[in-house]
Amino acid sequence: MKLSSFTRPLALSVLILLAGCSSHSELPDFTASGYLADRGTVRIWRKNHQDQVAHLMTVFTPFNGSAAETTDYLWQKDKLISVERHVTGEKPDDVTLRFDQNGGLSFMQRQLSGRREALSADEVALYQFDAQRMLSISDDLLSGSVLLMQGSWQPNGSVINCQGQRLQPELDGTERERIARQQRDAPGPISIAWLQAPGGTQLLLVSASDLCKTEPKEEDF
């Protein structure tokens, strides 16, 4: 099995321009970040515990609107103990992996449409590698204070974020036109997700779905 290539950032130069000089140690334990990938957008939620990463969740939304991927990674004392990946769409694919404190595989399951399959040792190793790569990407984004914001787009160009605050993201004309096109095609309100950093703002996602309904909450994460 070939793992998804969504973990490759599409525009590292944009991320570098957005990034500042702060350290993610100055940020709260529960954070959100993200980036543009080669086939879609990636949003990342992260919760640290006692200065160690405990939970990382990535949500990949493809540009073509096909199957989305949600992956949860759990760590305990800086050791990966669990990976759960859920792919929705016409070909659902669920993978669950659990590891002991020595890194040994203790549970493995892959559920496809109507059947279960085992994963090879190489496939398991790829999931472990993918976890560390996503953690490294998260570290880089948070080190630059590249943070994810989401909310409901308002007719006056403001956004009501998922915490009920009214914000005014500094989007350029091209980004606002993209939002306007989506708004014309949508039957109701739309949501947007964008990246906010010391160096600027970047529109990440425009959706006819309510992004706040699926945004993780710190108390449940």
What does it look like?
By secondary structure, the chain is α+β, with helices and mostly antiparallel strands. It has a domain at about 35-145. It is built from four helices and 13 strands. It has helices at about 10-20, 120-145, 175-185, 210-215, and strands spanning about 30-35, 40-50, 50-60, 70-75, 80-85, 95-100, 105-110, 115, 145-155, 160, 165, 190-195, 200-205. The chain has an eight-stranded antiparallel β-sheet with strand order 1-2-3-4-5-6-7-8, covered by helices on one side. It is globular and about 55 Å long.
Outline the secondary-structure elements:
Layout lengths: L11 H7 L11 E7 L3 E10 L2 E11 L6 E8 L2 E9 L5 E7 L5 E8 L2 E3 L3 H23 L3 E7 L5 E3 L4 E2 L5 H13 L5 E7 L2 E8 L3 H4 L7
Antiparallel strand pairs: 1-2, 2-3, 3-4, 4-5, 5-6, 6-7, 7-8, 9-10, 9-12, 10-11, 12-13
Summary?
The chain has 4 helices and 13 strands. With 221 residues, it is α+β, with helices and mostly antiparallel strands. A hairpin with a 2-residue loop joins strand 2 and strand 3 (52-62).
In order across it, which strands form the biggest sheet? 1-2-3-4-5-6-7-8
Approximate shape: globular
The helix/strand order is HEEEEEEEEHEEEHEEH
**Distance linking N and C termini:** 29 Å
Helix run count: 4
Strand content: 35-45%
Radius of gyration: 18 Å
Structural class: alpha+beta
Quantity of strands, as a count: 13
Helix content: 10-25%
What can be said about the biggest beta sheet? Answer: 8 strands, antiparallel
Q: Can you tell me the residue ranges where pLDDT is under 50 for at least 5 consecutive residues?
A: 1-5
On the 0 to 100 scale, the average pLDDT is 88
